[in-house]
Specification:
Layout lengths: L2 H22 L3 H12 L12 H18 L3 H6 L1 H26 L5 H11 L4 H8 L6 H31 L8 H26 L5 H21 L4 H19 L2 H36 L2 H38 L14 H9 L5 H8 L8 H18 L4 H8 L6 H21 L5 H17 L16 H19 L5 H18 L2
Length: 514
């Protein structure tokens, strides 16, 4: 088969695997990992390679941009304590535990390489966990904690990774020599991300067609990452700051005819990147496996299994320890959580600790190691084994575990959407109030009926209208959209509620422009 034929076949296979995963309600990366492993042992499979330096930019930058764009700053602030400990303490403990273990098993492995491996396998990929959590009734806070962790733990892990790779290259450098560079990367990345966002928003305002807009979005994301890395900043932190800054302003400046196709393309791109990451890593495993003799294969497999066990147990140990400490502090009156934040329970701690599946960031970081990096073959095999093992062991058992714990579900987004929809309908009515035309009166009757049902029917939608190209309806929709933007800005509604209503008003706006 030619390269093109292989690519088409693998993409179609990935679609079938993801459909099967949705049918049996498991994370689709689980099946992609299994498929990547099987691909490594196909005798006549393709031999594709990618320049290691491109791996992080190609695979991580768009995925992180997509996740950061939807992040709710309000939810991050409400859960800052647990999220920050998962991002800093859990990642640090996992990196240290893996580094100590692997250096003990392989004393000849440099400490820098051992730490790099620890940083590679440290950050969980919450996309796999949330794929399950969104299908079951769970406390909303758990979902927000995992989403916040997935956004920020990549930054902390890859910052350690970057220092370790640099130390391995220099060999005799001291860790304190990297401290100024780390501080500069932290502060400079945040400032650069905001600056890049202002430039991007200025540019996007001058583009009026969807294809050009989408191309510029992707090109801008890759450019931000590349420039940040070239000037010594953290690409991860820069992209996070860039995406969050854009997300606060872009919705009010972007028309529905550009936003709707853009969201669809980004969802597709993230899926394709996951497929390519698992395929490429699987293809790299075959030559590595073939050039190792049997004793070394066994040694590497045992090391990978040990690392997988340490990765899982370290997260469980920290999350459960955190829960015990917080319950003790609350019981003794030392710590008083905000009213909106519930005290951690044993059941919620079990779920959070078990949501430690690794994914695309681990694969991309392992692949991005230079070809001459010490023990690169071992690191690649171990990274894939940790991803595969965590997705299979935890991914396939997470849903039964959640069902067994009988956690009490809550979803404040439903109530927020109902309240915000009522405010939006009232704003639409106020916008067309006083218009004596028959069309305005018909529209007022329509919105009044919707307003009556808004509070009691959170699953209701926004009227799309029956008249094509209706300027009056577009005015009303614009007023309603401004009202939900104000509610989001004042943090009376979450980003989840905002995006749900944004989608409804986008459909209504497109209908009115037909």
């Amino acid at each position: 088969m030619t390269t093109f034929e292989w690519l088409i076949a693998l993409l179609l296979a990935a679609v079938l695997l993801s459909g099967l995963a949705r049918h049996i309600k498991v994370p689709y990366p689980t099946f992609l990992a299994i498929g990547g492993m099987l691909l490594a042992f196909v005798p006549s499979g393709p031999s594709w390679t990618l320049e290691p330096g491109l791996a992080l930019a190609l695979f991580v930058a768009p995925v992180l941009m997509d996740a950061a764009y939807d992040t709710s700053l309000r939810d991050l602030r409400d859960n800052w304590l647990l999220v920050s400990t998962l991002v800093c303490v859990a990642v640090g403990l996992t990196t240290s535990a893996v580094a100590v273990l692997i250096h003990w098993l392989l004393p000849d492995m440099p400490w820098a390489a051992a730490i790099a491996l620890g940083a590679i396998v440290a950050p969980p990929d919450a996309a796999a966990a949330t794929a399950i959590l969104r299908q079951v009734n769970l406390p909303y806070r758990i979902l927000k904690i995992l989403e916040g962790e997935s956004l920020l733990n990549d930054a902390s892990a890859l910052l350690i990774y970057r220092v370790a790779v640099g130390a391995a290259a220099v060999q005799h450098s001291r860790w304190n020599e990297f401290a100024p560079a780390i501080l500069l990367a932290l502060a400079g990345s945040l400032a650069a991300g905001y600056l890049f966002a202002r430039i991007s928003l200025w540019t996007m305002r001058r583009i009026s067609d969807a294809p050009s807009s989408i191309i510029v979005q992707f090109a801008g994301t890759f450019t931000v990452w590349i420039v940040a890395e070239r000037i010594g900043l953290s690409g991860i932190l820069t992209i996070v700051a860039y995406a969050i800054a854009i997300a606060r302003t872009a919705p009010e400046r972007t028309p529905a005819r550009l936003r709707v196709p853009s969201y669809a393309v980004w969802d597709t791109a993230v899926f394709v990147l996951n497929v390519l990451a698992f395929m490429l890593i699987g293809l790299q495993l075959r030559p590595i496996w073939q050039r190792l003799d049997d004793p070394v294969r066994l040694k590497y497999c045992l090391a990978a299994a040990a690392v997988l066990g340490v990765v899982i147990l370290t997260r469980i140990g920290w999350v459960m320890t955190y829960g015990v400490m917080m319950r003790l502090l609350i019981a003794r009156g030392i710590y008083h959580p905000r009213r909106s934040v519930a005290a951690p329970t044993v059941a919620s701690g079990i779920v959070v600790s078990w949501c430690g599946m690794r994914g695309i960031v681990t694969l991309a970081a392992a692949y991005a190691l230079p070809e001459v990096f010490p023990y690169r073959d071992l690191i690649l095999l171990t990274a894939f084994a940790v991803v595969l093992g965590s997705l299979v062991i935890q991914g396939l058992t997470l849903r039964p575990l959640i069902s067994a714990l009988h956690l009490k579900a809550d979803n404040p987004v439903i109530a927020e959407v109902a309240r915000a929809r009522a405010v939006a309908f009232q704003a639409a009515l106020d916008e067309i109030d006083g218009d004596p035309s028959e069309a305005a009166e018909i529209l007022r009757l329509e919105y009044r009926a919707l307003l009556l049902h808004a509070a009691s029917d959170p699953d209701g939608g926004v009227a799309t209208g029956e008249l094509p190209a209706d300027p009056l309806r577009r005015r009303a929709i614009a007023a309603a959209r401004r009202s939900i933007l104000d509610l989001r800005q004042s943090e009376e509604i979450s980003d989840d509620a905002f995006h749900q209503l944004e989608e409804e008003f986008d459909r209504a706006e497109l209908s009115a422009q037909a």
